[in-house]
Structure formats: structure tokens, C-alpha cells
UniProtKB/TrEMBL annotation:
<dbReference type="Pfam" id="PF17171">
    <property type="entry name" value="GST_C_6"/>
</dbReference>
<keyword id="KW-0472">Membrane</keyword>
<dbReference type="GO" id="GO:0001401">
    <property type="term" value="C:SAM complex"/>
</dbReference>
<dbReference type="InterPro" id="IPR033468">
    <property type="entry name" value="Metaxin_GST"/>
</dbReference>
<keyword id="KW-0813">Transport</keyword>
<feature type="domain" description="Mitochondrial outer membrane transport complex Sam37/metaxin N-terminal">
    <location>
        <begin position="43"/>
        <end position="165"/>
    </location>
</feature>
<feature type="domain" description="Metaxin glutathione S-transferase">
    <location>
        <begin position="192"/>
        <end position="255"/>
    </location>
</feature>
<keyword id="KW-0653">Protein transport</keyword>
<dbReference type="GO" id="GO:0015031">
    <property type="term" value="P:protein transport"/>
</dbReference>
<dbReference type="InterPro" id="IPR019564">
    <property type="entry name" value="Sam37/metaxin_N"/>
</dbReference>
<keyword id="KW-0496">Mitochondrion</keyword>
<dbReference type="GO" id="GO:0007005">
    <property type="term" value="P:mitochondrion organization"/>
</dbReference>
<keyword id="KW-1000">Mitochondrion outer membrane</keyword>
<protein>
    <submittedName>
        <fullName>Metaxin-2 isoform X1</fullName>
    </submittedName>
</protein>
<dbReference type="Pfam" id="PF10568">
    <property type="entry name" value="Tom37"/>
</dbReference>
<dbReference type="InterPro" id="IPR050931">
    <property type="entry name" value="Mito_Protein_Transport_Metaxin"/>
</dbReference>
Length: 269
């Protein structure tokens, strides 16, 4: 036990001692033809966070990014290679940046950080589950979008095997989080309530652009990643996007973050 603890301390010292590598690379599936809604949201959240931290990074798209990932709690994506270290998904990557004392949100006190991380957990859990649900439980979305995109980089019959395994894993995750037996109305209700909570938090600082004032924190990054991905992804069933669109302050928040850090201008006025 003591040796394991010392090993953790040694790893933490190494993380904090090394500067941010100029060749840090974020790995993800191909955006145009392969990436799925839950993966896109997670990847965009990490990109937003790194941009908010003003940290340089490259992006490498590859067909087998998910299988290259060291693993994760939900999507396994994206993963980042920074020097000798590899981390996957939003929270581990954020923790890695914080170890180096390069993170946004360092101005927050401990109580505010604890409050903020409660919102981060809510956003990640609700939106990721909703994105998985619409992508893998809705038959039309699965047949017309999810399966063709997920299998596009694999030859027959490997594409069918890949789709079977991917859907099985997604449904297993939905079952673990008790979303598997929900109907679409219940899913939309959960998303709407999460949006209400986020909009209420945003309105607590009406004169500032971010959730906690004039400066961004990790909540801004993860909320943007999920909200913007939902708003800009075209699916046969647009129930998620239509729900988010009802919350005008959140839409304006997405437009502001996009303009400041990405300049895609994908959201209509």
C-alpha cells in the first residue's frame, strides 16, 4: 500500500514538473464521415477546454481512435498524448492539465470548485446518456446515421461486427445508468431539466459571458461541447436539438464560445 502511494506521488511530481509539450496531440475519429454525436460532444468539450487554457495541441483523426484509447468511463474519446503521458476523456485530461497548474478556474476557491464540479458531473452524465440513447436506441437514427457512420471505415463484414459490438456496449452503458428502459419523452424531460439548471446558473451572472463570471472554467467547456454538438448535428430525430433550442440563453452562450474560440459560425441567428 505504501509503495503504491509513493508511486502515485512520484507520478504527480513528474506530471507537474514537465512543461506542456508543444507536440501534444488529441486523437479522435474522422469528423466528416465517422464520428458519432456522443464522441463529437466529448471531443469538442476537450478542445474547448484546451483552447480556454491557451494550450497548443494538434488534432489527429484516425479510424481506430477508439481502439487506440487507453479506455474511459463513457466514450473513451478523445485521448491526448502529451509527452510520455496518455489520458482519455474530459475529466482525466482536465486533471492532467491541473497537475501542471495550467488550468482555467484556478481563481476559484474550494467551495466554488466543488459547486462547479457538481454541474460538470450533471452535464456529462445527462447529455452523454441522452446522446447515446438517441444514437443507439432510436431505430431510425441508428439505421440511417449511427451504423453507417460507425462502420464506414471498416470493410464488410467487419463493419457489421464493429456496429454490433459498439451498439452492445452503448446499450450496456445505458442499462448501467438506468436509461435503457426510458422512453423518448422521459429522455427529453431529463435533458430539459438539465438545460433549465444550466440556464438558471448562467443567469446568476447576467453581465458576464461565462457560468462563473468573466473567466471560463471547465463547466463552460463541457457544457459548450455537448450543447453545441447537439445543436449542430443533423439527425432523423431532432428532439434533443429542439429541446436545447428552447433555452435561448444557452444558445447565445454557445454562439459566444464558438465565436471566441472556434469561429465556425454554425449556429443560425
Amino acid at each position: 500500500m505504501r509503495s503504491h502511494y509513493l508511486s502515485q506521488l512520484d507520478t504527480a511530481d513528474k506530471l507537474s514538473a514537465e512543461p506542456w509539450p508543444e507536440d501534444a496531440t488529441l486523437y479522435q475519429p474522422y469528423e466528416a464521415e465517422q464520428i458519432l454525436l456522443p464522441e463529437n460532444a466529448s471531443c469538442l468539450a476537450v478542445k474547448a477546454y484546451l483552447k480556454m487554457c491557451n494550450l497548443p495541441f494538434g488534432i489527429r483523426s484516425c479510424a481506430n481512435a477508439e481502439h487506440m484509447s487507453p479506455g474511459g468511463r463513457m466514450t473513451k474519446l478523445p485521448f491526448i498524448r502529451a509527452g510520455a503521458f496518455i489520458f482519455a476523456e474530459f475529466e482525466p485530461i482536465v486533471n492532467f492539465v491541473e497537475q501542471k497548474e495550467l488550468a482555467i478556474g484556478s481563481w476559484q476557491d474550494e467551495d466554488e470548485k466543488a459547486d462547479m464540479r457538481t454541474y460538470v458531473s450533471l452535464v456529462e452524465n445527462i447529455f452523454t446518456m441522452a446522446e447515446l440513447y438517441i444514437s443507439f436506441k432510436n431505430e431510425r437514427v441508428y439505421k440511417e446515421v449511427t451504423a453507417p457512420r460507425n462502420g464506414v471505415v471498416f470493410p464488410w463484414p467487419l463493419n457489421h461486427m464493429q456496429n454490433y459490438g459498439k451498439r452492445r456496449n452503448a446499450l450496456r452503458l445505458l442499462k448501467v445508468y438506468q436509461w435503457n428502459d426510458l422512453d423518448i419523452d422521459s429522455v427529453i424531460d431529463k435533458v430539459a431539466k438539465c438545460c433549465e439548471t444550466l440556464e438558471y446558473k448562467l443567469k446568476e451572472s447576467p453581465e458576464t459571458p461565462f457560468f462563473y463570471g468573466d473567466q471560463p472554467c471547465e463547466l463552460d467547456a463541457i457544457a459548450f461541447g455537448h450543447l453545441f454538438s447537439i445543436l449542430t448535428t443533423t439527425l432523423p430525430n431532432m428532439a434533443l436539438a429542439q429541446t436545447v433550442q428552447k433555452f435561448k440563453d444557452l444558445v447565445e452562450f454557445c454562439r459566444f464560445v464558438d465565436e471566441k474560440y472556434f469561429q465556425t459560425r454554425c449556429l443560425p441567428n
